[in-house]
Amino acid sequence: MSSKLRKFAFAVSVALFAPLISATEEERAFIRSGDISAFVAAIEAANAGEGPPRIELRTGGRYTFGKNDRLPPIRRPIEIFTSSALLSGDSGGPVPLFEIAESGGLTISGVRFRDFWSASESSGLITNRGESIISDIEIERVPEESAAAFVLNEGSVAIDDVAFDDFGPLSGPFLDNRGAAEINVTHIAYREFQESFAAIRNTGNLTLLNTTIAGYGASLLASSEIAAIATGRGGRTRFGNSLIVWSGADVCSGVGALFSLGHNSLTDATCRLAGSNDFQSVRPRFPSFERFYLGRRMLFHYPPAAGVSVDSADPAFALGVQGIRPSDGNVDGIIEYDRGAIEVFENMSAVSSGQGATGLFFDPDNDGHYVSVVVNPVNTLVTWSTFDKTGAPRWVIATGELSNGGSFIGEAFITVGGRLQPGRPPVGQEAERWGTLRIEFRTCEGGFVVYDSDLPEFGAGQFSIKRLAFNSSLGCSERLFTG
Fold first, then answer.
1. Pairwise pLDDT comparison (3 vs 266), residue with the higher score
2. 46 phi, psi to nearest 5 deg
3. Which pLDDT score is estimated for 13?
4. What are 112's strand-pairing partners?
5. Which of 16, 214, 371, 449 could bond to 301 as cystine, CB 3.0-4.6 Å?
6. 22-266 domain in CATH 3.30.420?
7. Could you write out the three-class secondary structure of the chain?
8. Burial of 346 (0-12, 13-18, 19+ CB in 10 A)
9. Could you tell me if 86 and 65 are in contact, meaning their C-beta atoms sit under 8 angstroms apart?
């Protein structure tokens, strides 16, 4: 997380507040997958000071919100954290989903949002009037008519390490800022437009750092009204180390004030930037890769290795971005950070397909548990060498997709029956559904596995994995695992 982001000091209550919610010695409320009523109860208890202000969602859990499944407004500082839990809307879900009052604050991380939408232009999925931090988030909007913003901010918000992919026919802004906002290491992609919505609307104070905004949709190409950033009267927008690739329309519009912190790359001169090393005529199309996640693909753009945006960011703003070291993306011997949210590295096209995740991993806390990952252009094969609760050895095999190395989820099977034949293939074996396997890679060296078996002799749980071996010809970059 950016060093500029504020951290909240939460007062911790020792009270247990509802039978649906369990709190550990760390004083956190744990919400089981799909348990919306417990989610509501946890926020209500935290608001009342009768329950923990830290709410944990199950790793890989799924929480589906119908139109009437509204969460209570957040009136005190609350932290919601998880790893890859999916929050999705049924028929658009409730918008806003999170509403933060002036007295409240929301720190939320590790969440994936999908299928929330609203026709209201004056709403946001996260409507903030307090002080909030939004980090390590993915948002995907499907082809529905959504005029609502992802974040409507009237307070203070820091947005860090966020990926937003919108391909709806009516596309509301990523951010409608009327207060104070900072966006850092964030990738915003629009695929289609039919109405004149900006990616960001700003009538407050906004700072944009190490961020990519990209729009390529066919309807965008035919329009001159859709700007990437619209800064209205009274608004102040500052840019630094950012990359805005906006085809067919103006990058900037509005009468507000625009300031450059330097080292930006834009497709036109409508932002009127005059900072150090600003480029305002970069090529309109950049290469991209897609990250597969729970049956959908997130789109990411990065500058071409031969372009001016590689190895040219200001290290004063890029230093320590997500803990990732800079790479020599254009192989010129100069190692500096790149502009925008994606760090280009050597062999980017091969590694961004996810093949850098191929290798053999082990559980450092439990000897004898090994995980093999093989990524190919068609799918990903994962084999887990493990034991059931009786100690019997078993092989769990799953297939799925892993398009850029970050996440894998697959349906898993084991073989039962069968017998060996000398010199011939085994016969009599059958595949039995075992459950699901999920892998979250955090670095080139490993991550963790989440499993959920249909069979009682295995149950559910998770464990960390560490790399034993890899294929050096495929390459690997830490930036691959931070989308």
1. 266
2. -65, -40
3. 28
4. 86, 138
5. 214
6. no
7. CCCCCCCCCCCCCCCCCCCCCEECCCCCEEECCCCHHHHHHHHHHHHCCCCCCEEEECCCCEEEECCCCCCCCECCEEEEEEEEEEEEEEEECCCCCEEECCCCEEEEEEEEEEEECCCCCCCEEEEECCEEEEEEEEEEECCCEECCEEEEECCEEEEEEEEEEECCCEECCCEEECCEEEEEEEEEEECCCCCCCCCEEECCEEEEECCEEEECCHHHHCCCCCCCEEECCCCEEEEECCEEEECCCCCEECCCEEEECCCCEECCCCCCCCCCCCECCCCCCCCEEEEEECCEEEEEECCCCCCCCCCCCCHHHHCCHHHCCCCCCCCCCCCCCCCCCCCCCCCHHHHCCCHHHCEEEECCCCCCCEEEEEECCCCEEEEEEEECCCCCEEEEEEEECCCCCCEEEEEEEEEEEEEEECCEEEEEEEEEEEEEEEEEEEECCEEEEEEEECCCCCCEEEEEEEEEEECHHHCCCHHHHCC
8. middle
9. no
Q: What are the residues facing 56 on neighbouring strands?
A: 30, 81
Higher pLDDT, 190 or 168: 190
| Phi and psi based region of residue 228 (left: phi greater than 0; alpha: psi -120 to 50; beta: remaining) | alpha
Residue with tokens 């069979």: 455
Comparing CA positions, the residue from 333, 332, 337, 331 lying closest to residue 311 is 337
Type of residue found at 388: D
Tokens for 448, please give them: 């963790």
Name the residue with higher pLDDT: 474 or 467: 467
- 389 band by pLDDT with thresholds 50, 70 and 90: confident
For the domain made up of 355-481, the CATH class stated in words is mainly beta
Say if CB 285 and CB 303 are below 8 A apart. Answer: no
Residues facing residue 443 across a β-bridge: 446
- Measured at the CA of 193, the angle between CA 190 and CA 196, to 5 degrees, comes to 110
pLDDT digits (tens, 9 = 90+) for 79-132: 999 877 889 999 889 999 999 999 999 999 989 898 898 888 888 999 999 999
85-89, 324-328, 435-439: least confidently modelled range: 324-328
pLDDT tens digits, 15-31: 323 333 344 445 899 99
How many CB atoms are located within 10 Å of the residue 86 CB? Answer: 20
